[in-house]
Design goal:
single chain; 260 residues; alpha/beta; Aminopeptidase; 7-stranded mixed beta sheet; 33% helix; binds zinc ion
Length: 260
């Protein structure tokens, strides 16, 4: 028994000696180096769905460019005024094809500001509210048609948030059927410029209670243009719409410089 013990002791001693002498090395596990992919650059075009209408339709806005000069263009805040929708989509295509336009600029596009109204071909949203009377403004009127309070409607709140988030230098909202360029806030020079690029006359209609023009134009001091297309624009194909009114939108984006 004593001899067995001495054998084990000898083996252990040998192991310790070998280990101390560096002859025994523990197994080398491979070192796993994680190669991280390069950071993804911020996309030139960001598309996000944040807003939802009363009937849960998405309100999709697109942001092009990363510059500090911001133009916000929307259509169909009155759902039965649809001619602006293909025009805004066509503008997006144009800006993607002409990225030099987006240098130092950002363009926020909301092609359908009243999705429920567009779906039912109605001026109003699904609760019968005129969204263009639902903004906070000193001239707002609380009513069943304009909303019992300002920003009572999710669609209006979404547009209000976009204006706060992007702080646009100018806003264009496309309407029908008055066939003119109406303007609110410090926007006469911009309205003049846009009128040079289309056949619509300037017409100062006056800020309506709780309208986008009253809120963003008069109250916040942002130039707001209501681009009022004629009723006949409903029957125009997208290319004809673009030829007639696209240059005025491009001039708004390029402002204060002249669009080429
Ligand atoms: Zn309208």
């Amino acid at each position: 028994m004593k001899r067995q013990h001495s054998h084990i002791l000898a083996a252990c001693t040998l192991y310790v000696v070998l280990a101390l002498a560096g002859c025994y090395k523990p197994v080398d596990y491979p070192v796993i180096v994680k190669v991280l992919p390069p950071p993804i650059p911020e996309p030139e075009t960001a598309r996000s769905i944040i807003g939802k209408s009363i009937e849960n339709r998405p309100m999709v806005h697109t942001v092009l460019g990363r510059g500090t000069d911001v133009t916000f263009i929307m259509a169909a805040i009155h759902g039965n005024e649809k001619a602006g929708i293909p025009l805004v989509h066509r503008l997006e295509k144009f800006l993607q094809e002409n990225p030099e336009m987006l240098e130092k600029r950002k363009v926020v596009l909301l092609p359908i500001a009243n999705p429920d109204g567009v779906a039912s071909n109605s001026r109003y949203n699904a609760r019968g509210i005129d969204l263009n009377r639902n903004f906070p403004a000193p001239n707002r009127i609380n009513s069943s048609r304009f909303g019992r309070i300002a920003l009572s409607e999710p669609e209006t709140r979404f547009i209000f948030q976009l204006i706060r988030q992007y702080a646009p230098d100018r806003i264009v909202s496309i309407h029908q059927p008055l066939a003119c360029i109406d303007y609110d806030g410090p926007s006469q020079a911009l309205a003049n410029r846009m009128a040079e690029y289309c056949n619509l006359p300037l017409k100062k209609i006056g800020a309506k209670p709780g309208s986008l023009g009253s809120h963003a134009g008069v109250m916040l001091g942002i130039p707001v243009i209501s681009l009022e297309l004629p009723k006949s624009a409903d029957s125009f194909r997208s290319e004809r719409l673009w030829q007639q009114y696209g240059p005025a939108l491009v001039a708004a984006v390029a402002y204060p410089y002249r669009a080429k």
